[in-house]
Design a protein that fits this description.
The chain has 373 residues and is an alpha+beta fold. It has 2 domains: 112 residues, Phosphorylase Kinase, domain 1 (2-Layer Sandwich); 238 residues, Aminoglycoside 3'-phosphotransferase, Chain: A, domain 2 (Alpha-Beta Complex), CATH 3.90.1200. 43% of the residues lie in helices and 16% in strands. It contains 12 helices and 10 strands. The strands form 3 sheets. It has a 5-stranded antiparallel sheet with strand order 1-2-3-5-4. α5 packs antiparallel against α7, α7 packs antiparallel against α8 and α7 crosses α9. It starts with a helix and ends in a 5-residue tail after the last helix. Catalyzes the GTP-dependent phosphorylation of 5-hydroxy-L-lysine.
């Protein structure tokens, strides 16, 4: 359990820049002529939507990203993230463009005197991507398939990425890496004593016994690590029949990138696609089919998928409860997953691995015969 002092130091690491300060940063660091600034939601950093006066060429909307003090102490990792975003854009993925500072860098360290101490924050600027988060629409089986395919293509493409500081993505105790599910134990006190906690404790126990012992059999890769329903943007177009068809138009938030495994990326994607679904248990098969059209799973990876999806639910739900204690003013943002997440996790737990896998694997198999369920 974290002590009060630990929580306080973590709470203080989140930036608290005003809109005026954000506007001044965009102008002084990146040379923009800002017309308007609006705050954007963020977990433990700070993001601003920056509008600039119209120019002859070039974008008029940006996202100013201010990293928390802890992340700002690792400029190498943020540099790698920026270069990955640029690499993926060059490879045809719908990512932002990374803007350079007036000093021709991809980020700048800004120091602020808070009165009691001087704090340093890494500041970046990305182009703003248009589109709606997929959380806002009912996701069709075909779109789930495309998202699974996208997740696999992204990880596969990153096998070709090279950078001298790439080792910074080996994040040993990073709470959001699926490998670190056992680290949740020190946060369980935030759940109190109830069935939710019992389920999480059971998942952690199974993870130690059935996943930790098989990690060496999983294929390693770099994971985006957060392909959630707010980090994937879509745009609609009219089909020949006149109905709206959706395509992925943007991939956001590369801050949780780390070395992991192909099956981790798939499990994380399935879990987040379940959140807003009216038929959450059906989701996994469509995402799995799309993923396997690029990267088929091995038998060992397939056998771990159910538990990995449950584990990601646990990570998201426990850390949301913990973050609400630190930042109660952001409770609505943190608890987005919790609105349906506990219910979905309990449903998976009650149905059991065999029954859920049967639905997932049969659905995925139906794509092979050209009859999607």
């Amino acid at each position: 359990m974290s002590s009060g002092n630990d929580q306080q130091s973590e709470a203080l690491s989140k930036p608290t820049f005003s809109e005026e300060q954000a506007s001044a940063l965009a102008e002084s660091v990146f040379g923009l002529k800002v017309s308007k600034v609006q705050p954007l939601p963020s977990y433990d950093d700070q993001n601003f939507h920056v509008y600039v006066s119209k120019t002859k060429d070039g974008p008029t909307e940006y996202v100013l990203k201010i990293s928390n003090t802890k992340a700002s102490k690792n400029p190498d990792r943020i540099e790698v993230q920026n270069h990955i975003i640029m690499f993926l854009k060059a490879a045809g993925f719908p990512t932002s463009s990374v803007c350079r500072t007036k000093g021709d860098n991809t980020a700048s360290l800004v120091s602020i005197d808070s009165g009691s101490e001087i704090k340093s924050y890494l500041v970046r600027l990305l182009t703003y991507l248009p589109g709606r988060p997929i959380a806002e629409i009912p996701i069709s089986p075909q779109l789930l398939y495309e998202i699974g395919k996208l997740a696999a293509k992204l990880d596969k493409t990153l096998q070709k990425f090279h950078h001298p500081k790439l080792s910074s993505l080996h994040r040993k105790n990073f709470i959001w890496n699926l490998k670190n599910v056992p680290l949740l134990e020190k946060y369980l006190y935030v759940l109190g004593q109830n069935r939710n906690r019992e389920i999480v404790e059971h998942v952690i126990h199974l993870f130690k016994e059935e996943v930790m012992t098989k990690l060496s059999h999983f294929r390693e890769c770099i994971n985006h690590g957060d392909l959630n329903d707010h980090n994937i943007l879509i745009e609609s177009s009219k089909s020949a029949s006149g109905n709206a068809e959706y395509q992925v138009s943007g991939i956001l938030d590369f801050d949780d990138m780390s070395y992991g495994y192909y099956v981790f990326e798939l499990a994380i994607t399935i879990m987040y696609m379940m959140i807003e679904s009216k038929n959450p248990i059906q989701v996994g098969g469509h995402v799995l089919a799309g993923f396997e059209s690029i990267t088929p799973l091995t038998a060992v990876e397939k056998g771990a998928l159910f538990l990995l999806v449950c584990s990601r639910f646990c990570q998201s739900l426990v850390m949301a409860a913990y973050s609400c204690q630190l930042y109660p003013e952001n409770k609505d943002y943190f608890m987005v997953t919790a609105k349906t997440g506990w219910k979905h996790l309990q449903q998976m737990f009650d149905m059991g691995q065999k029954a859920v896998e049967e639905i997932w694997f049969e659905t995925a198999k139906s794509y092979e015969s050209g009859i999607s369920m």
